[in-house]
Amino acid sequence: TVNILVGEVTKNRDIVRILFDLTSRDYTTTRHSVNVMALALGYGRHVNFDKHQMKILGLSALLHDVGKVLINAELLKAPRKLTDDEFNEIKKHPTMGFNILGTCKFNNNEIKTTALEHHEKLDGSGYPDQKTDISEFGQIVAIIDCYEALTNDERVYRMAINPLTALEVIRTEIVDAGKFSRNIFKNFAHSLLNLYSPS
To answer: Which of 185, 187, 140, 181 has its CA nearest to residue 166?
Structure first.
């Protein structure tokens, strides 16, 4: 993880600015992004991604929520359920993230595409574009983003749930409904077993 970050930061100082802006506005989102990156790298290792794929997936996961730097910080920290109008404002962050990352000098479009697609669903019920043709990394980060949000104990508007319950919720309410890839979900669940099992 450190090698990924150091290697990219030396080439692209915009990453430091983006991460600093996000941390200064909403530390919970920063912690979430780091957790999503760690889980994504565990997934990549489980499915035998090569070094280049691991690098792109790690950066895609770390930067998937950067669009939130342009969202009203009060909405991000609101200790209550958001109104429809407020949630519609939050739903702009994938497009904002795509635009922000488009100004960075990455050699791979997957990073900004993942930011745009991480709330899309295979049945077209997601946002911002109701896409059904979603990139592999977009699908991976979408599942991990959902899992991490369910198990994160810093969400002020609801209690975290344990990992097994979170996986069951994702399987029964999202995967079985055709919104997430069953194969990617299975690989993610197995990657968690490898992560938590003693080596």
So the answer is: 185
The helix or strand, by DSSP H or E, that contains position 191, with its residue range, turns out to be helix 182-196
From 119, 22, 90, select the one nearest 62 (Cα to Cα).
Answer: 22
This model's pTM is above 0.85? yes
pLDDT (tens, 9 = 90+) of the chain, 199 residues, equals 556 665 665 566 677 777 777 777 777 888 899 999 999 999 999 999 998 899 899 999 999 999 999 998 888 888 788 899 999 999 999 999 999 999 887 778 999 999 999 999 999 999 999 999 999 999 999 999 999 999 986 655 667 899 999 999 999 999 999 999 999 999 999 999 877 665 5
Neighbour count for residue 43 (Cβ, 10 Å): 26
Catalytic residues: 68
